[in-house]
Amino acid sequence: MTSALTLPNGSHLASSWHEAPPGSQPLPFELDHLLALRTPGLIATRRHLHSHPELSGEEFETAALIARELSLAGLQPRMLPKGNGVICDIDGRPDGPVVALRADIDALPLTDVKDVPYRSTVDGVCHACGHDVHTTVLLGVGMLLAQLADLGELPGRVRLIFQPAEEILPCGSLEVIEAGGLEDVTRIFALHCDPNLPVGKIGLRVGPITAAADNVTVRLSGPGGHTARPHLTVDMVDALGRLVTEVPALVSRRVPANSGLLLVFGQASAGTRYNVIPSEAVAAGTLRAMTREAWEEAPKIVGQVVRDVLAPTGATVDLEYLRGRPPVSNDARAIQVLTAATVTALGPDGVAETPQSMGGEDFSWYLEYVPGALARLGVGRSGPSLDLHRPSFDVDERAIAVGVRLMVQTALRALAETR
Predict the structure, then answer these.
(1) Exposure of 194 in the CB half-sphere (CA atoms within 13 A)
(2) Mean pLDDT to the nearest integer, 330-350
(3) Over the Cα atoms of the chain, what is R_g?
């Protein structure tokens, strides 16, 4: 199709929140009317993206679709050097500041198990973290702000960042930064889907809102042999068992409890035969920390504990510790902007307190350079909770119009406050 902004034939369209909620204020210059017109197409875009997900680093068709839709809105998008991400400036008054809005666009290596018309058509790949929603929301924001710019009513420049590779290491945010994505930016904002919040609620928090997240891989080796004579070998399965059970508990004891240092192995393997002690074993997992201090100490702590635990086994240890991302720490003034924008866009009832999550988010790297904040967009559906990173994950699509309205108000308020 030439444009993703068309509902597929026979597709059921959920009711949308294109009308201003009670207690909110309308968008300026009749943008609510434009949003109402655009909402069916935005939902179609989200469904198209959901049906055609692309893994981290491979988002070429997704980026092409984004660039095409922005061009149709009269904007001039530019591709990232690899062609799998997009940056697009909406030029308003030249004397105004630059505010950035970011969406991540990659999918996860999971098989979609939902029975819906927009189920993933790509085997083993699924938008199970809501990045299709993030992308769609930012496209909608771009269309509305482009209209304001055409009217001469955009008090500065808004940079739309459609970022690849949020789900892997090295982080895609670093690619954006290297490509000049933060040049002249004074503040940056982002949304992330939260299935634990209902539509119309925005989770806000000053300070850390996510955890740091690193990758840990431990490879063990030693002489294998017959299970009848383990004394002549390094008992690799026993060593692996000690690694995955003892090390996580000991790591968490090396820092204060409120540091939230958490090592969890998600993959472990050794051997292929019941009566053969293998010569190799491997375990891989994530290291998460709720404080910057614990994150900075984590590589040293993990390395020491792994070697202490495995020393009696005689196994040779090869530890690969891959730095991921620090915690996302929301700037207080940026949260003030988001809070005011939420009240304006959704009414006072739209603001919700939210706890710090143990999940990681590479939006944190942007905040190493400029102040900003990440908010949680309520996408919860009625019925059983469908958590992030599950192959059954889905959203209440009314959240798309909510996200567009919020981010338009956020951009306008941030531009006004930083002039």
Answers:
(1) 27
(2) 97
(3) 24
CA 329 to chain CA centroid, nearest Å: 14
Residue 179's pLDDT band, with cuts at 50, 70 and 90, is: very high
Q: Is the pTM of this model over 0.90?
A: yes
For residues 79 and 356, what is the distance between their CA atoms, to the nearest angstrom? 33
Helices 31-51, 398-417: crossing angle, 10 deg rounding:
120
Pairing of strands 316-325, 212-221: antiparallel
SS3 call for 390:
coil
Task: Give the torsion through C-alpha atoms of 288, 291, 292, 295, to 10 deg.
Answer: -30
Q: pLDDT (tens digit, 9 = 90+) per residue, 127-161?
A: 999 999 999 999 999 999 999 999 999 999 999 99
Element (H, E) at 204: strand 202-204
Beta carbons within 8 Å of 398's beta carbon, 6+ residues apart: 14, 15, 16, 17, 199
How far from 270 is each of 14, 221, 281, CA to CA, in Å?
A: 48, 10, 4
On whether the CB atoms of residues 255 and 216 are closer than 8 A, the answer is: no
Buried b (16+ CB within 10 A) or exposed e, 381-401: beeeebebebeebbbbbbbbb
Q: Identify whether the C-beta of residue 103 lies closer than 8 Å to the C-beta of residue 162.
A: yes
Cα separation values, 214 from 80, 102, 264, 322, Å: 25, 22, 11, 6
Q: Which amino acid, one-letter code, is at 307? A: R
Pairing of strands 212-221, 202-204: unpaired
pLDDT tens by residue, 184-219? 999 999 999 999 999 999 999 999 999 999 999 999
CA 72 to chain centre: 27
**pLDDT tens-digit readout, 350-388:** 999 999 999 999 999 999 999 999 999 999 987 776 789
